[in-house]
Amino acid sequence: MSEKTETIEVGAKNTSIIEMENWLINKVAEHLSMDSEKISVHEELVLYGLDSMSAIMISGDIEEKLNIELPSTTLWDYPTIDAIMSFLKDKI
């Protein structure tokens, strides 16, 4: 995991990048029926078995958590958790 200490606005409260990254790792693990400890933020999610349905569902989870709208291709355009986090930091 990266050592990011910046905060982003999530709904009505601030959360750190690390907290958001951990939430995303857990969300990916949940959708892919994996142990979150086995997910690297630098590994492409398709290597863990991410398919288009899971990508859409995870994008929806992110949209709901951050109260933003994302392109349906977000997880394909940003194929790692680290890339997704960089994209989200710029969106908020």
UniProtKB/TrEMBL annotation:
InterPro entries: ACP-like_sf (IPR036736), PKS_PP-bd (IPR020806), PP-bd_ACP (IPR009081), Ppantetheine_attach_site (IPR006162)
GO molecular function: phosphopantetheine binding
The keyword Ribonucleoprotein appears for this protein: no
Keywords: Phosphopantetheine, Phosphoprotein
Protein name from the UniProt record: Carrier domain-containing protein
Top-level taxonomic group: Bacteria
Domain (Carrier) ranges: 15-92
